[in-house]
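This section describes the prediction task in plain terms. A model, or a person checking by hand, is given the sequence of a single protein chain and must write out its three-dimensional structure as a string of tokens. No templates, partner chains or ligands are provided. The sample shown here is typical of the held-out split.
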Amino acid sequence: MALQCACLRLPPQDLLDAVPAERDQFAQRLPWSAEPLQGWTADKKLHGDFVPEKADSPGCTPEEAERLAGYRARILELTTQVLTHPYWATPLSGLDRMEARTTLKRTHDTAGPDA
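The expected answer:
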């Protein structure tokens, strides 16, 4: 028995796709270390010419650290909304629950070529 749900994709799920992508884009512009650290150079690796090294890191500004913490908090909030949604409190168990969750997760995949 598969459970039919009127809300096949929750709005927090869409945001949960977008917010981490936005956070990752922001994080790529940050220094390699959140705290100011001296750069380093390591020895050349065996069987290769690559010499690992990092330049000095000025660290993140308080505004950057606050924005990154805001992204983390938003992702946690959205994850909690999705995981505690009443849809998951259905009386299904075992294979029926697994099938219902798989159907819900894959609804956007079956929208068709015009979607």
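For orientation: Residues 62-83 form the longest helix (22 residues).
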